[in-house]
Structure formats: structure tokens, C-alpha cells
Amino acid sequence: MAPHHRPTHDPQLRNDMPNQTVAVLGLGAMGSAIAARLRDTGHDTAVWNRTAAKTAPHAEAGSRAAATVAEAAASSDVVLVVLLDHGSVREHLEPVAAELKDKVVVNLTTTTPNEARSTAAWAAEHGLTYLDGAIMATPDMIGTPVSRLLYSGERAAFDAAHEVLATLGAADYEGEDAGLASLKDMALLTSMYQLFSGFIQAAAMMRTVGVPAVATAGEVSGWLGAILPHLDQFAAVIDSRDYSGGQSADFTRAAIGSLITASREQGVGADFLEPLLSRLDELSATGRGGADWTAVNEQLAIR
Ligand code: FVH
């Protein structure tokens, strides 16, 4: 395939390195942002979407609209898959395995670690060069300094597609296990949703006395900003597995119990906090109430 040179007037992007040609499969909010970014950085792009009408604005903007996945892949060095979920990825890649040979297939669709490993195994069976990716960004962030994408799987695939991947955001390679990017993505999203659900409960509590959520958001941001540096201390205890110091489980039980009671007194359920109290109760019941409360991490293991 003939390499393309960046037709750009941006001196920062202009260089003599050939650009890779790229297929973007899936033109939802994220696929569209990725296709636009690739065009903006001078990449020749082919686009495919299940609902073909969504290719029209991309064609007008300079991409080639492909009628099939195979057609999009045929003209491309790198195939970026940005579909809804694991099922849709497998549904559309499996019939065209032969056409994906000699391409670098990068799956940016959100999947679980085991789904990522399963697709990597399928790709290996078919002799494909495959990389799994996880996008730590929203569509409007793509290509900006705050965009970060994680990748795992074949190092050679990461290196081969790096020129393209680097246009989307910071490109971090997590390791050969194809599930690693997804695992970190899921871990970060887990912490994000639990943090956000804490805010949602706080807003519900403060609304009972007429405080708007926007005011509570400001308070929560300030408080979390002050308290988040403590994560490093928690992490050191968890890594050492030495729970002999710090804030005890019994102290924390009492604190969480008060939070739950206060919430209920205001007529607001404390559903998000109750599982934590249950875990702390377990620690106490097994004679470990004096242990650092972060010992609850050990109880999360599914036995
Ligand atoms: N949007 C975001 O902020 C997040 C950021 C983190 C990563 N996610 C993941 O990116 C994947 C795509 O997300 P999206 O935002 O583009 O999602 P939608 O706008 O809903 O578009 C979905 C596209 O998937 C196509 N699609 C759905 N089901 C099928 C199927 N069975 N076969 C083929 N394509 C399918 C859909 O096509 P259509 O409905 O237009 O025909 C869209 O192209 C996703 O994994 C996020 O978790 C985004």
C-alpha cells in the first residue's frame, strides 16, 4: 500500500514520515471524533458504519465511505474498531478475518479483560496482528493533551500502529496480556463511578435543606482535592498487607454508621455506603476490628 504524506499546513505535524492509512469501523460519538482527528492530522481514512447514513458527513469531510467492513479494511494499514461492545466487534470481524491479514487491527471498543483476551486469541488463531485498546477520554477530548488511551497485546502491533495511535492522545502500552488495558480501564472507571455515586448521595442529602447540587459539587470538589493525597498512604498499607497501624476498622465502622444514620434522618437512602459497613462488620466479627480499615480490600476476593 502506498504510504501517504501528511497534507498539512501545521508545521508541528509536518514531517517526512509517511502516514498510515486508517479504517474506522463505527461512527458513533467516539468513532466520529477519531475519524475527524485522523483527517485533521492528514490521514487517509476509510469509514464504515452499520447505519450507512452516518458515513455521509465523513465522506463530505474527506473520508472514503466504505459499504462493507472488508472494503474499509482493504485500503487501510490500520483498522480501528470503535463499536458498541464485544458482541458487535466479533459479529463484524469474524466474517472478514482473511481480509484483515497484513493489517494492524486495534480494538478500541470497551470490553472486559476476558473479552479482550478472547478476541486476541481469536485474532492469533487467524494470524492477525491485533492490539486491544481502552479509551480514557470522551469524544471531545480526542487529540487534545488530556486524552489518554491504553493498549495491551502484541508489542509489535503497538509499535506498528504507533504513528496513528499517537494522534488520538497519549498512547500507553500496558503489556503483552491483551486484557491489561481493559483491566486498568475498568479499575479506573470503578473508582470513578463510586466517587460519583458518593457525590450523588451527598447532593441528595444537601438538597433536603435546599442546597442545590451545584453548590454541593463545589464543596465536594474542594474536599476531595484536599483528601485525595491520602490515597498514597492507603496504597502503601494495602501493598505491605501490614494492617497494624492507621485508622481502625472499628473507628471507621462507627463513622460509616453515623453517615448512614445521618442520611436516613434526612430521608435519603444510604444504599451505596451499606456494603462498606457490612465488610467492616465482617472484619470486626472475625476479630480484626483493630486492623487498619483498608484491610477490607482482602475481603473483596471472591472465594
Ligand atoms: N463516548 C464516550 O465517552 C466513551 C469514552 C470511553 C470509550 N467509550 C467506548 O467507545 C465505544 C464507542 O462508543 P460511542 O460513544 O461511539 O458509542 P455510540 O455513540 O453509542 O455508537 C455506537 C456505535 O456502535 C455501532 N453499533 C452498535 N451495535 C452494533 C452492532 N450490533 N453492529 C454494528 N455496529 C453496532 C453503532 O452503529 P449504528 O447504531 O450507528 O448503526 C455506532 O456506530 C464503546 O465501546 C464505548 O464504551 C466511549
Distance between the termini: 52 Å
Strand content: 5-15%
Q: What number is the mean pLDDT?
A: 94
Series of secondary-structure elements, N-terminal to C-terminal = EEEHEHEHEHEHEEHEHHHHHH
Q: Give the strand order of the largest sheet, numbering strands 1, 2, ... along the chain.
A: 5-4-3-6-7-8-9-10
Ligand identities: ligand FVH
Give the C-alpha Rg.
Answer: 24 Å
Rough outline: elongated
Number of helices: 12
* Major sheet size, sense and barrel closure: 8 strands, mixed
Residues in helices, as a percent range: 40-55%
The computed structural class is: alpha/beta
- Total DSSP E strands: 10
Detail the poorly predicted runs.
1-15
Structure in words:
The structure is a single chain. The protein is α/β, with parallel strands linked by helices. It contains twelve helices and ten strands. The strands form two sheets. An eight-stranded mixed sheet has the order 5-4-3-6-7-8-9-10, sandwiched between helices. The longest helix is centred in the middle third of the chain and has 28 residues, at 180-207. Bound molecules: ligand FVH. Residues 26-31, 49-51, 54, 82-85, 88, 91-92, 109-110, 135, 138-139 line the site of ligand FVH. The site of ligand FVH has 22 residues, from helix 1 and helix 4.
